[in-house]
What does this fold into?
Amino acid sequence: MHPELGFLGDLLTLFGLGVAVVLIMSRIGLPPIVGFLLTGVLCGPYGFGLISNVRDVEGLAEIGVVLLLFTVGIEFSVQQLVRMRTFLLLGGGLHVTLSLGVTFLLARIAGQPWNVSVFLGLLVALSSTAIVLRLFTDRGEIDTPHGQATIGILIFQDLCIVPMVLLTPFLSGETSSLGEIAIIVAKILLFAVAAVLAARYVFPWFLHQVVRTRKREVFLLAIILLCLGTAWVSAQIGLSLALGAFIAGLVISESDYSHQALGEILPLREVFNSLFFLSIGMLFNVRTVLESPLLVLGVFATVVLVKAAVGIGVCFGLGQSLRVAIVAGLALAQIGEFSFVLSKVGLETGLLDERLNQLFLAVAVGTMTASPALIALGPRLAALLESRLPARFVSGRRLLPSMESHRNTRLEDHVIIVGYGLNGRNLARVLGRSSIPFAVIEMNPDAVRSERKRGRSIIYGDATRPEILEHAGILRARVLVIAISDAAATRSAVALARRLNDRAHIIVRSRYLYEMEPLVVLGTNEVISEEYETSIEIFSRVLQRYLVPRDKIEQLIRDVRSDGYQAFRSVANTYGSAEALGQYVSGLTVEVYRAEPGSELEGKTLGESRIRERGGATVVAIQREDGDVIANPAVTDVIRPGDSVVLLGRAEQLAAVASLFRAAATDTKAPDAAMAVSGQVEAVRLN
It folds into this structure.
């Protein structure tokens, strides 16, 4: 058998068994990392020996470490650090220092040398960002006070991994003289200066040339080149791969393309990271637990208690409530994935022997496995203590700063525009004039640059990536408008947006009529077909040349739309939102008319206006210019100039009363709202 086929067989074994084990772990509520570690144990030389070439797997695992540090650098925000400086730096610094100090003392009592004791403290001081974020996300607790406190400390710990990796050779005695230390510091400073210059002059120009090609595969290759290339240069001058990857991430994070880079690199990171945890699992010897179960259990309990106590003490000491302190402390009571990165460095430099490394692996896997139970225990333990302790020990003294992104404003109830072509620009112009908040997603780097200079909220990225939609605020958006020419990308973006936010109103521009049905099935609320709308505009203008009355043209437009969109309406009734009124009352439309100053309705009550008697439409609500909404108004409510009146009725009923809302001096041209599809109900949501 060819060696390549043997390695391919090893990968198939690892991934096949890994998928099965992770599925089982997810059923019992354990994170995927635990599944990968267990898979490595089963496949490794200390398990069933299913993998013939462990070194090749470890080589790929090194790429996983590089990508992990690279994404940490991309996600790191200097502005966020400044906003959280008190809690993040003080809380994170205290947590790392106290965890390290207590572990050092316990290791010294157990007879370990001072340098090994310090290194064990470094291993224990780090917690698992991946596990905690996954569990808090599943529980919907990311934005809670204890979630913010925990994430603040985790960010500080993630930043500590680079200096810890650099410190390890000093602890092992590989670098001891002042001259060698000075050389390493000089290399770091020179590398940092070179990275700053590259970030200022080289990387932006290079990335801009790449994104101008509008080819996703070229962009992905360029990002991988920058990541691995910077890590390789770092290793060539005697520094670590991890440091180079982290600095490369920091450089990318300052560019306009950071979110797209993160979205492209994350799938690769997950694949290679799984290999990293698989390789760690293959190093673990189960006999360590079988031969010394009491030792493993004792160290496991000590680590959990120390880290939990330190976390609770730090949070409570910084003014957080007892509940926040307990939940955050228990959430941090495990050993993290970066500790495995550090342990491999310690094993290579001789700080850890095989026996101590096996003990560390057993305890680390155990604490990770116990994380879901510890986080679930937090609220119950807090409730028990709150009922028994005096109030002054329960309530906090200080609010935690927001962990929101470093963007200047947080968009709420806004419109997301995907595509900044003619349709996107016109929509953005109208929204801006109407003071409606919006964000734009665009793949043209020149458009992104020019609009950012004008202060426009625009993001470079692909809307088929969840990271891009989430950065644009899809979870809080009211409307998503997709106006791009790529039909496949449009369908992917609709499916993703509907999965992320099932309440958003999605409007899509399509080129052809046959594209409408699959878009509606995926969750689109409204589809505007250029092919069909163009034909309507053409015959409308032809009829104008023959002096056909405007009201007759509009009636013909309504009739044609009613016939042409019949298939679309039937699909929408089958797959659309349960809130759509058209599923229950056929042929009705909801439209909004503005009462112009000088109109016939100005200053009249609903009873005096006789809107229902004149046309048959029903007034559902009135929104004042100041934003106040009168739902189900009474006959005594007065219509003021500038009021937006929500009407319910058939298209012809709405057209019959449209003239009542216009000023007396205006012509009888029907409003744009009358162009709505007959029989299709639009969900009108007022502020």
